[in-house]
Design goal:
Elements: H1 16-26, H2 28-41, H3 46-49, H4 55-74, H5 78-90, H6 104-125, H7 129-175, E1 179-184, E2 189-193, H8 196-201, H9 205-211, H10 215-219, H11 225-238, E3 242-250, E4 256-268, E5 274-283, H12 285-308, E6 310-316, E7 321-325, H13 327-333, H14 341-344, H15 353-366, E8 368-377, E9 380-393, E10 396-406, H16 408-459, H17 466-493, E11 502-505, H18 506-516, H19 518-524, E12 527-530, E13 535-538, H20 540-556, E14 565-574, E15 584-592, H21 624-634, E16 638-643, E17 649-656
Helix pairs in contact: 1-4, 2-4, 2-6, 5-7, 6-7, 16-17, 18-20, 20-21
Length: 657
C-alpha cells in the first residue's frame, strides 16, 4: 500500500533541508530536550510505556531518532524517511514500542510536538519574514505528509488486527494442530478440550477433569509450573488480553513433552472477575530439539571462529552499514561496534590503502573480493586476510558477505620458516661442500696407506715377521673398509629428494643394474626373473641405486651350495590418499632364496650402520639398506622386509603414482 505517495507536492522543499542541517550540526541535543519537554507537557500516551527510562535515556533515544529523520531531511529525502518509518511500524520493528502500542493520540501529539520545535528553530534560523513563512509552510507540508502516512498506517494496523482476530475466532477450533481447551480459573479445573488433547498427550477431556482440582499442576514439570502461574497472574494485575508460555507436560505414558500455550480471557463474572480462559497448546518438542541443536552448532561455529581468529560479516555497500557480524569480527578489529567504511579505512596501513581500494574495485566487477592488508589499532599492527562475495542489484554492487581472519601469527611463522629455509639451504650447501672436501682429504691418505701397505706386503713378504705381516694385512683391510664406508656415507648424504622426477621404464633401469653387476651375477650363476616392470614417475639414478643395493644384498647373502634366484614382480593397487593426494600405488617385490634373517629385525635393518652379520662373515658398512629407505622416502613411498632364517628374504617397495 502506497502510504506516502498521494501528495507528491508535499515533498518539494527548499528551506527545510537547510533548517535540518542547522539543527543536526549544532542543536540536536537541545532540540531533543525541547521535544521531551513538549511531550511531557502534552502528556503523550507513549510516555507511559517508557516510564521506566530516565530523562537522559529518553533524550538519548530521541537524539538517535532525530538524527535519522534530520539526516533524511538534509538529503531532501523526506518521502523515504516517512516510508521507512511506516514500514518499520507495519512490520513491528520499532525499537522501543510494539506495533500495537501506538494509539491515535500518539500520532497527532507527536507530530504536533515535532512541528512546534521545528517552527521555533525556524525563527532562529531565518531573520527574513518571507523566508520564515516559506520555511513554515514546508514544515506544515512535512508534518501533513507524516501525519497522513501515520494515520493510514494506524488504520491499516487496526484493520489487520480486527481481521486477524476474526479469523482466529472462526478457525481456531478446526485449523490449529494443537488442542483447544477452556480452563475454569475459579475452580481450577479444565472444563473442555477438543480431540487433539488425546492425540498429543493421550488424555480425554473427562480424564483431565478427574485428575484433580488443579489438573495442570499435577502433570506440569515442577521447574515449569511458575511459567503458567506467572502468565495467568498478568490477567488479574494488568487485565492483559493474552499470554503465552512454554512448559513440559507429562503425557499419559509418563513422558514429558514440550508444549507452547497461548491463552486469553473467555468470560468474566458479574463482579468483573475472570471466570474462564480459553487457550490452545502445541507440541513443540521437535522445535526445542532443533533449537538446541542449532544453538549447539552455533556455539561450536563461534568457538571455531574464535580459535582460528576468523569472523564473518555481512556488509551492505549501499547505505554503508553493517548488519550482521560474528563476535570475532569485533575482537579482530578491536572495536565495540562496526564502523562505517570511511572510519574503518583510517586504520589501514597507509602503504596498503591503494591495494585494498583496488581489491574493492575489482570485486565490484568480478563479484569476488580478496585482500591481505595491515591493520593498525591501539598501537598494534595486525595482518588481516579478508575474502568476500559481492551481490548486485540492478547492475550495481549491493551487498558483500565474507570472512575476515587475523593471520598475524601465521605470517610471522611463515616468515620464520622462510628464514630458516634459507638458512638450511645455506647450511646444506656448506655441508655438501664440506663433504666433498672432507671425502677427498680423507680418501687421499687412506689411498696412500693402502698403496704403501700393499707394496710392503708384496715386496717384503718373505722378510716380514708373522706379527708384522698380520698387522699390515689388517691395516690394508681396514683402509679398504674405510674407503668403502666413506663412499657409502657420501652416497647416503647425496640422495636428494629434490631431484627431477620423470616417467621412465623401470625394466630399462633394471637392465642397467644387471649390466653393472654382470660379473658377480655370472660368477654366482645367479638367475634374475622379472615380470616386466612398468613405466613409473621416479628419479631414475636413485631407482638404479635402489635396485643395485637390493640385488647386491641378495647376491651377497646367498646360500653357499645353491645358486642365487631373485624374482622381481609388481602390481598396482588403490589405498588411502597420501599427503600428496595420490591413492594409486605401484608395489614392487624383490624376493630371493638366500640365507634370510630373523623377522624380528625387519625394521632395524634399515637403520644407519646396522649389521646382521659380523664383518668377518660378510663385507659391508651397514648403510646399503639405509640408502634404500632414504630413496623410497624421497619418492613418498614405503619399504618393508619379510624373512625367515634359511628361507630367503622379500623386500616390498610401494611408490605412489
Amino acid at each position: 500500500m502506497a502510504l506516502t505517495n498521494p501528495f507528491p507536492g508535499l515533498y518539494k522543499y527548499q528551506h527545510l533541508p537547510l533548517l535540518a542541517k542547522f539543527i543536526l550540526d549544532e542543536h540536536v541535543y537541545d532540540f531533543a530536550v525541547e521535544q521531551l519537554y513538549y511531550a511531557r507537557q502534552y502528556n503523550i500516551p507513549l510516555l507511559k510505556l517508557l516510564s521506566h527510562l530516565s530523562d537522559e535515556q529518553l533524550v538519548e533515544i530521541a537524539i538517535t531518532s532525530l538524527k535519522e529523520i534530520l539526516g533524511y531531511l538534509v538529503d531532501n529525502n523526506a518521502r523515504e524517511q516517512i516510508s521507512n518509518a511506516t514500514q518499520r511500524w507495519l512490520s513491528n520493528q520499532l525499537e522501543i514500542v510494539g506495533k500495537y502500542d501506538v494509539v491515535a493520540e500518539d500520532i497527532t501529539l507527536l507530530f504536533h510536538v515535532r512541528g512546534k520545535s521545528l517552527k521555533n528553530y525556524a525563527f532562529r534560523f531565518y531573520r527574513d519574514s518571507s523566508q520564515v513563512q516559506e520555511l513554515l509552510a514546508e514544515v506544515d507540508d512535512f508534518l501533513l505528509a507524516s501525519t497522513t502516512a501515520s494515520a493510514n498506517t494506524y488504520i491499516a494496523i487496526l484493520k489487520d488486527k480486527i481481521q486477524e482476530e476474526e479469523e482466529f475466532r472462526s478457525k481456531l477450533s478446526n485449523a490449529l494442530p494443537g488442542f483447544i481447551y477452556v480452563y475454569d480459573v475459579q475452580n481450577k479445573v479444565q472444563t473442555f478440550s477438543n480431540n487433539k488433547l488425546k492425540e498429543i498427550l493421550g488424555y480425554t477431556s473427562e480424564v483431565m477433569q478427574q485428575l484433580s482440582n488443579n489438573a495442570y499442576q499435577t502433570i506440569t514439570h515442577p521447574d515449569d509450573w511458575d511459567k503458567s502461574y506467572d502468565c495467568r497472574k498478568e490477567y488479574f494485575e494488568s487485565d492483559s488480553s493474552t499470554c503465552s508460555f512454554d512448559c513440559r507436560i507429562k503425557d499419559i505414558h509418563g513422558n514429558y513433552k514440550w508444549m507452547r500455550y497461548y491463552e486469553t480471557i473467555l468470560r468474566k463474572d458479574a463482579n468483573g472477575e475472570i471466570r474462564e480462559i480459553i487457550g490452545v497448546a502445541f507440541d513443540i518438542s521437535g522445535e526445542k530439539e532443533i533449537t538446541q541443536a542449532l544453538a549447539t552448532r552455533e556455539g561450536q561455529l563461534l568457538e571455531a571462529q574464535s580459535i582460528a581468529h576468523i569472523g564473518s560479516f555481512e556488509w551492505y555497500i549501499v547505505g554503508n552499514k553493517s548488519t550482521t557480524n560474528t563476535p570475532e569480527i569485533y575482537k579482530i578489529f578491536e572495536m565495540k561496534e562496526m564502523e562505517k567504511f570511511e572510519q574503518f579505512i583510517k586504520h589501514i596501513h597507509p602503504d596498503d590503502l591503494e591495494k585494498i581500494e583496488d581489491a574493492m574495485k575489482r570485486s565490484f566487477q568480478s563479484g569476488n573480493y580478496e585482500c591481505v592488508y595491515r591493520y593498525l589499532k591501539n598501537g598494534k599492527e595486525k595482518i588481516i586476510w579478508s575474502k568476500g562475495v559481492v551481490t548486485s542489484k540492478e547492475g550495481k554492487p549491493y551487498k558483500m558477505v565474507g570472512t575476515v581472519q587475523d593471520i598475524t601469527t601465521i605470517k610471522r611463522i611463515e616468515e620464520e620458516l622462510k628464514q630458516k629455509t634459507i638458512e638450511l639451504e645455506k647450511s646444506n650447501e656448506s655441508l655438501q661442500q664440506f663433504a666433498a672436501i672432507a671425502s677427498h682429504d680423507l680418501k687421499e691418505p687412506l689411498r696412500k696407506i693402502s698403496i704403501y701397505a700393499s707394496k710392503v706386503l708384496n715386496t717384503e713378504k718373505d722378510r716380514l715377521s708373522e706379527m708384522s705381516y698380520t698387522a699390515l694385512s689388517k691395516i690394508s683391510g681396514s683402509t679398504r673398509r674405510m674407503q668403502k664406508m666413506i663412499d657409502d656415507i657420501l652416497q647416503f648424504s647425496f640422495v636428494d629428494g629434490n631431484q627431477e622426477k620423470r616417467q621412465i621404464n623401470l625394466e630399462e633401469l633394471l637392465s642397467e643394474v644387471k649390466d653393472l653387476l654382470s660379473e658377480t651375477i655370472s660368477t654366482r650363476k645367479a638367475e634374475i626373473i622379472t615380470d616386466g616392470l612398468p613405466t613409473a614417475f621416479v628419479i631414475a639414478p636413485q631407482i638404479i641405486q635402489l635396485f643395485q643395493n637390493l640385488i647386491s644384498n641378495a647376491l651377497k647373502f646367498s646360500k653357499e651350495n645353491e645358486p642365487p634366484r631373485i624374482v622381481i614382480t609388481h602390481t598396482f593397487f588403490i589405498d588411502k590418499p597420501t599427503a600428496s593426494g595420490s591413492n594409486k600405488y605401484l608395489e614392487i617385490t624383490i624376493a630371493d632364496n638366500g640365507i634370510g634373517f630373523d623377522d624380528k629385525d625387519n625394521e632395524k635393518i634399515f637403520g644407519l650402520f646396522y649389521r646382521l652379520h659380523g664383518k668377518t662373515q660378510f663385507e659391508g658398512t651397514g648403510l646399503g639398506l639405509s640408502v634404500c629407505k632414504k630413496i623410497v622416502d624421497n619418492h613418498s613411498g614405503t619399504i618393508a622386509a619379510k624373512s625367515k632364517i634359511g628361507e630367503g628374504s622379500e623386500f616390498i617397495i610401494r611408490l605412489p603414482q
